[in-house]
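Troubleshooting log. The previous structure file for this entry was overwritten by mistake, so regenerating from the original sequence record. Sequence copied from the archived sheet and checked twice against the printout by T.R.
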Amino acid sequence: MVHLAPIPNDKDVDKDPLVDGMKKIKFPEPTEHELSTSVYGSHFATQDLPKTEMPEKEMPKDVAYKMIKDELSLDGNPILNLASFCTTYMEEEAEKLMTASMATNFIDYEEYPQSAEIQARCVSMIGRMFNAPTHDDNEASMGTSTIGSSEAIMLGTLAMKKAWQNKRKAAGKPYDKPNIVMNSAVQVCWEKAARYFEVEEKYVYCTPDRYVIDPEEAVNLVDENTIGICAILGSTYTGEYEDVKGINDLLVKKNIDCPIHVDAASGGFVAPFVNPNLEWDFRLEKVISINVSGHKYGLVYPGAGWAVWRSPEYLPKELIFNINYLGADQASFTLNFSKGASQVIGQYYQLIRLGKCGYRAIMLNLTRTADYLSAHLEALGFLILSQTGGKGLPLVAFRLDPEKKHHYDEYAVAHQLRQRGWVVPAYTMAPHSEKLKLMRVVVREDFSKSRCDQLVADIKLAVDTLNKLDEEMIQEQKE
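Regenerated output below.
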């Protein structure tokens, strides 16, 4: 999540020294020979890096590069960050293509028509993967690239709201109180979409033994002001797939006119290859739009997302802007405008490089690795909360067994693992079940069996260490 950054006031710029009582040391001005020495022999190594205001003078490019690189070394290692779904590995050939297209302003279709054509190819491939009704001449499925699933969800919510308002206006009914039904375990971008676009949030809350939406409860919350139901293909908490078909069938059975948007941010590139018979996509008549993150299991570096609609009927024309920009008429439905073409090119590379066979092999390997990790953690005494056997995302959600009455919690285990470089998040469950603490390991493409073995060994070491510590010492470590 990108945080808003404050601009420091002048009084905050020159703060007290790092160590009380220490005066700020002034280093002597460099002599002439120092200007050609190494980075650490130059006067730049003895000065503070600019933090609040652009410096008056320039610095050599190698110095700027090294100084920034040194600062970034304080970040964690992305490969060991098992909290993130985001892709941390791509082949060198993909990286070269993406680097070459960084300067391509993707929105300028007139100047870069082939980049736009490549986006259209990706939309078609992804739409067909989601079983878009290409056999039906009355429905022309469409889609677009986005910065990620957050933007795609914003667009999906906006389209559902506008379509609902148009129906209400046509019927001469009030259209000022839209609502959307969703699980309380949704990703925060759904809450943002609802609040930004003034849509009331109606939640199906999790329970101590159910962490996904209940189809019956969801359908019962639908009223004349409901713009749609959000169903998640892969909860961020436990990786479980929500019962999209169950919701769809209830809506059909009760003859309720309410669309479904599937948030397939994580599962959209997994389920079609691991569990192809699972009905969650455009095979279900009530599913009108789907979002997916290319930068998760689509295997592209962060910044790639996709939104697909069943037909133009569900994407109101007034939301699409026809723009004459730099000599070309363009149809645009996006919250962004200028952006590089790198992520679209990277996605196309993965789609044609791997093909269905390659994606299937990778996703099945990830599923096997997740099951392997799950079995080992269970053997260590943890309770497993995630699905196995490809019934959910390739991740492992687990917790300490409360019956064993440990004198430490999941946060203490996570803290021990952090000392070994692993980032394994500990967190509480969604509202109404937040007393439940758990941990989660996301199995990504570069998480091999050997790396998994190392993690298991370090988790065992962490537990053994905590068992030898008393409560007071554990609290001191946390602080």
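Residues 342-379 form the longest helix (38 residues). Archived copy saved in two places this time.
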